């Protein structure tokens, strides 16, 4: 239809047209935010008349669509929240509660700020997004999967099953169509069909094409009807991240996609203990330049508090300090079971090899004579932090589901409560339980039961925010901690997840079945301690079970 | 059905910016002939004169909602079967269900990436052809 040259220049012209639109949009943006503010105030003054609220909904909704399509993702997201809250009011057909009003007022204020901020920056938000993260995308960028040359029933089923886990699939029937996606959102992974005759570097060529279209590091997964070594070898040579033989087990694909699309872990946290503030500042600057987070403690006796608060991946410590030596401090740290796994790197002017070795004997992991060249420091600390995280991963992760263990999720809950208390935030806790799990094990066997447990774990990880915590609390019970979230939103979110989970087809080999789950939600500070929160969520879960399962209920707050 | 090539698209949305984005995208990249309007009543007025192959209707407009516009189009002689695509920022399953049940061929959700809108419409058109 169109030659490549034509479509490229058309894309250029479109981009120019869009750039002009963005310019004029950004100029009018504060004005549009002001309209929303005045509509909101008007609704309030008019006693929340339905038509006022409906009008405001339309305005917010319209702004969301335009801002999002033009790449102003922050404004779009806030407008989206406002529109969403208004749908709630309109649905319930009740007066907004004081809490609703506060919430929307805050959102409206945020919108004005974001609008003014965007105007002040006055430039291409899409390009800005590109510069920052390399991922220009309005919402949840890590769930887009591109599927090439897979058709028919299998493609549909793949879309449905992966859809339950929150993945969005884009299908291309032919490899050639990929070219037209340049400039699109980048996918988190690409699935290719490798059923074509193998041997002519088909897979390698296809993978190369995909990488050229998107980016060199995009993960590629193959599905194929060949299980022979030659085919697998070719897939390996093509640098694929997964290889599945048809008929594929969807839960296996989900496992792989979950692994390869997970967002890069947060920055390493390094605790620096040094009584010389200049030296500490120098080391902190070197490590931060390499993208790590640091906290410096000048007084060694403050270390224990920071270990709990900051949860460092590595401790970088001076050997000679007033009050107590680094070696003594290391020994104290190692007495606490929770801190046994944190690597300690000593720094000192000490050049005597024997004394260095003695320092390591006290639980230090490495020793560097000062001054350390910054690149060496960064390399050593990175290696230690990596290994420390891997070790901790095994200690703190449930072997089957990869979620936090029981004790870890309770720790995470407690840390989240402390953070919420400090910031006067809310926090929600949800307890989920698979309905009739014992029966699944009895009917289909433990392997199938495990598969169900894993499916829920992947679904949770996929659908929750990076800042949320999920743990396997007991057999088939999962505890979710949602910072900065009220019980209503948590209940909605969990209910969404409940619906998705109920639609997943679990495979028994010759048949498939579906499973439901029940959940209970509680909120801090309505309920204060971790014990009480868990008990309240558990109580609500119990009520959900008694009310007939397959639902998520809220704990009654104590003052009601 | 051996469908003809997609040429004319009539598009209604009360957001002027969305109209402009879509128009530029569909015209420059898609190569389609596009007429746009800002309301349902305007849409119905333009319908017969422009004779679109496919229509795109915003689900939420002040004067008429998308479902009403679609129903009115279906009641217009010659446009009983014209493929309709809804454009919507609605995300509630309930609303989407109503839109799907209306007989529209597809739903494009806002915000969308303008760069890929023409391809999306092309895919939708091809899918009708396959049926």
How would you sum up this structure, described in words?
- The complex is a heterodimer of chains A (about 550) and B (about 130).
- Chain A is built from 19 helices and 17 strands.
- Chain A has helices spanning about 5-45, 50-70, 75-90, 100-120, 125-135, 150-165, 200-215, 230-235, 250-260, 275-290, 305-310, 325-335, 355-360, 375-395, 405-425, 435-445, 445-465, 485-505, 530-545; strands at about 145-150, 170, 190-195, 220-225, 240-245, 270-275, 295, 315-320, 345-350, 365-370, 425-435, 470-475, 475-485, 505, 510-515, 515-525, 550-555.
- Chain A has a 5-stranded parallel sheet with strand order 2-1-3-4-5, with helices on both faces.
- In chain A, helix 3 packs antiparallel against helix 4.
- In chain B, about 45% of the residues lie in helices and about 20% in strands.
- The chains are: A alpha/beta (about 550), B alpha/beta (about 130).
